[in-house]
DNA sequence: GCGACAG
DNA sequence: ATCTTGTCGC
């Protein structure tokens, strides 16, 4: 795929103030409403934990063998080789099958700075996505989208760069306030809205994402799983973001596209 | 000044 | 993110 907003490339040589200004521009360009051409219900479940038949098969529905109509979901994740460079892996999935994998790499020029993650990892991600030949219907990135001080987290930055629908999936909350406390274990499937607080650029109370309990143990009192923190990147609403993530979480905490990109990135290290 | 902060 | 084995509980 191709960068369509090169003026938004995450140049790590900019000053911190320039980076933040760029993020405000990106947020102003981003759309946090549904604007894509596929049906979330057509996102086929990824590979199952076992050799069990897919959900559709076990219900006895006829599996459509025609390729090309099911949405292409692309998971993106990074791994690091010391402090020198990062590798980015993009794994494209359609109908629960891997249809393409792409790799990218870039020198690390910045330390990790909360709020500026895209300037540390962006180059490698762009490198990987530029070498991807299929056109993704939606990207699943590791990190925040709209849950960000200036509404321009990694998922928003990358989504706007390529003008492609994108969602962010994080394991921890960067900012914002959950409508309900997340301390106690949530039941599987639970969704808790994340509202903007005064550390953010948006009016207080704006729903900028959700905590989503993709998986939970039968007895959460003794051992429980933390919820995912999901937020829209670009061209997807907060609610639809959860729908997309839910459709790709197949028996594990993390979405299948993310897990596959994660393991591919690890392989790229050696 | 202190705390809080995706990966 | 990364350095790393076993271990507890489903």
From TrEMBL:
Residues under site feature: Interaction with target DNA: 112
Protein name, as recorded: Endonuclease V
GO cellular component: cytoplasm
Swiss-Prot/TrEMBL keywords: Cytoplasm, DNA damage, DNA repair, Endonuclease, Hydrolase, Magnesium, Metal-binding, Nuclease
Organism: Halobacterium hubeiense
Record Gene3D superfamilies: archaeoglobus fulgidus dsm 4304 superfamily (3.30.2170.10)
EC number: 3.1.21.7
GO biological process: DNA repair
Region (Disordered), start-end ranges: 1-23
Keyword check for Ribonucleoprotein: no
GO molecular function, one term: RNA endonuclease activity producing 5'-phosphomonoesters, hydrolytic mechanism
């Amino acid at each position: 795929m191709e960068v369509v907003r090169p003026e938004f490339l995450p140049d790590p040589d900019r000053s911190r103030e320039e980076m933040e200004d760029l993020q405000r521009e990106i947020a102003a360009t981003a759309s946090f409403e549904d604007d894509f051409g596929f049906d979330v219900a057509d996102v086929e479940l990824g590979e199952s934990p076992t050799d069990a038949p897919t959900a559709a098969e076990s219900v006895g529905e006829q599996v459509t063998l025609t390729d090309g109509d099911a949405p292409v979901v692309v998971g993106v994740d990074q791994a690091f080789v010391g402090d020198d460079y990062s590798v980015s892996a993009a794994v494209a999935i359609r109908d629960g099958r891997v249809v393409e994998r792409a790799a990218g790499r870039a020198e690390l020029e910045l330390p990790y700075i909360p709020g500026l993650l895209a300037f540390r990892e962006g180059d490698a991600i762009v490198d990987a996505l530029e070498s991807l030949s299929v056109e993704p219907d939606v990207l699943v990135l590791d990190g925040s989208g709209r849950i960000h001080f200036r509404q321009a987290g990694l998922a928003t930055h990358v989504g706007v760069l390529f003008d492609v629908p994108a969602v962010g999936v994080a394991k921890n909350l960067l900012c914002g306030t959950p409508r309900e406390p997340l301390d106690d274990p949530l039941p599987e499937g639970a969704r808790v809205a994340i509202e903007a607080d005064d550390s953010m650029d948006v009016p207080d109370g704006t729903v900028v994402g959700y905590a989503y309990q993709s998986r939970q143990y039968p007895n959460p009192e003794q051992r429980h799983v933390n919820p995912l923190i999901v937020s829209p990147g670009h061209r997807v609403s907060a609610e639809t973001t959860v729908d997309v993530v839910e459709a790709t979480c197949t028996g594990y905490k993390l979405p299948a596209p993310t897990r596959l990109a994660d393991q591919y990135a690890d392989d790229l290290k050696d």
